[in-house]
Amino acid sequence: MMLLRSLTGLLLGSACAGAAILVTPTGLTNSSGVSEFFPAANLINDSGLSGAADFSNYTSITHASAANTNAWTTTNPNGADDYFLVSSPGVTPVFEFDLGGSYALTDFVFWGYHFNAANGNEAREFFFEFSTDGGGSYTSSTTVSNSLSDFAVQNAETLNLGGTFSANTVRMTIQDNHFGGSASGGDRVGLGEVKFVAIPELSSFGLLVIGTVGVLGFRRRG
């Protein structure tokens, strides 16, 4: 009985320590071929952030004014008009993020596209699809958004995904920016940095220990 309690306590302690973590994708693919003015690699390389972000401090980490070295943005196919102009929309940005492992995702985190003030180019509506087989198939999805003129600017914005989604790969489709809101811009689509809040999925070792606890418990009852 003491052994069962010890093993169970070990597992529960690990799960609780659980602890949410901040996940930075390890790779990304521009799967829509959208034209980039600032490169998409800046979305996941921590460039522009004021410090090393983790779950305990990311809300206090800020992002610098947008530049070719620290942010991502598209070209402006409609000149100064809306990037998502109904009669002539730009290519919808779609990115596939490799998370570098399997996670139970709960929130999307991003830093805005800005020049030390709100900018209409900042992306605000996101459609996410989740894959557990490296992008071979996407079996669940959700849409999250900020209201028009609710800007992240230099701060981290956290959007709850509305559930917990298992994934090792995430496909993100940006569906709108802040054109027509309270700030100029909106002829492009941009962001500073993206991450996810997640709970690590149970490892093979954890599953093995759970199985062992179950067997021991069965034998003792028997």
TrEMBL record:
Transmembrane intervals: 196-218
Alphabetized Gene3D superfamilies for the sequence: Galactose-binding domain-like
Keyword Aminoacyl-tRNA synthetase recorded: no
Keywords: Membrane, Signal, Transmembrane, Transmembrane helix
InterPro entries, alphabetized: Galactose-bd-like_sf
Cleaved signal peptide residues: 1-19
Protein name (Swiss-Prot/TrEMBL): PEP-CTERM sorting domain-containing protein
